[in-house]
Amino acid sequence: MIVVDPRSAVPPFEQIRVQLVAQVQSGELPPDARLPTVRKLASDLRLAPNTVARAYRELERAGVIETRGRHGTFVAPHADPVRRQAQSAAESYARQAVALGLGVDDAVRLLRDTFEAGAVR
């Protein structure tokens, strides 16, 4: 549940943003959880839709949420910063493996062998 304090010195869009980030980090909003529409949340909070839209834009820019067209707005599958970094490393490794001519099976085998050998501690 999001609560906006109209007396706060923190702008309403920032209050929304901070609370949604906290809910994602705590797991209260898990990956792929659907968020209310901008209009619905604005109505519930008695705010202008542009205020909620700004919070959503900031969160999308940060990779916390993603808009899936007409399907709605969702918590990004990799909203967790550690997971995002791991995803980035995996993408880099996959690009290198392809450039070296490795197939997915060989690339995964090498990665598994590396973990099993205890080379990454």
Automatic annotation (TrEMBL):
<dbReference type="GO" id="GO:0003677">
    <property type="term" value="F:DNA binding"/>
</dbReference>
<dbReference type="InterPro" id="IPR000524">
    <property type="entry name" value="Tscrpt_reg_HTH_GntR"/>
</dbReference>
<protein>
    <submittedName>
        <fullName>GntR family transcriptional regulator</fullName>
    </submittedName>
</protein>
<keyword id="KW-0804">Transcription</keyword>
<dbReference type="InterPro" id="IPR036390">
    <property type="entry name" value="WH_DNA-bd_sf"/>
</dbReference>
<dbReference type="GO" id="GO:0003700">
    <property type="term" value="F:DNA-binding transcription factor activity"/>
</dbReference>
<keyword id="KW-0238">DNA-binding</keyword>
<keyword id="KW-0805">Transcription regulation</keyword>
<feature type="domain" description="HTH gntR-type">
    <location>
        <begin position="10"/>
        <end position="78"/>
    </location>
</feature>
<dbReference type="InterPro" id="IPR036388">
    <property type="entry name" value="WH-like_DNA-bd_sf"/>
</dbReference>
<dbReference type="Pfam" id="PF00392">
    <property type="entry name" value="GntR"/>
</dbReference>
